[in-house]
Write a structure and sequence with these properties.
InterPro entries: UbiK. This protein is mainly alpha-helical and 92 residues long. It has three helices and no strands. Helix content is 79%, strand content 0%. The relative contact order is 0.12.
Length: 92
């Protein structure tokens, strides 16, 4: 689930998830006429979209990619710190 608009596929997944949840909520909340159920589903969908629009969510995949990038950067920083320390020791 993602809010970021730069990832079209992830936004579509979020929309599908919101649609599914709103349909389930409407189904549980209403056993009356289909029109009432459809109206509830639309209202739930709008409510969920509004709530998620205020969040800055990322997919698990994007999160894991960022973890890998961070791990590589930590290794690079450690190597640079060692290089700087060696250079400082070499200076008179």
């Amino acid at each position: 689930m993602v809010h970021r608009g730069t990832q079209g596929g992830c936004v579509n997944n979020q929309q599908a998830w919101i649609h599914e949840i709103s349909e389930q909520l409407a189904g549980h909340a209403s056993t009356g006429p289909g029109l009432l159920r459809d109206d509830l589903a639309r209202n739930f969908r709008a409510l969920l979209q509004s709530a998620f629009a205020r969040l800055d969510l990322v997919t698990r995949e994007e999160f894991e990619i960022q973890q890998q990038v961070l791990a590589r950067l930590r290794v690079q920083v450690t190597e640079l710190e060692r290089t700087v320390a060696a250079l400082e020791r070499a200076q008179p």
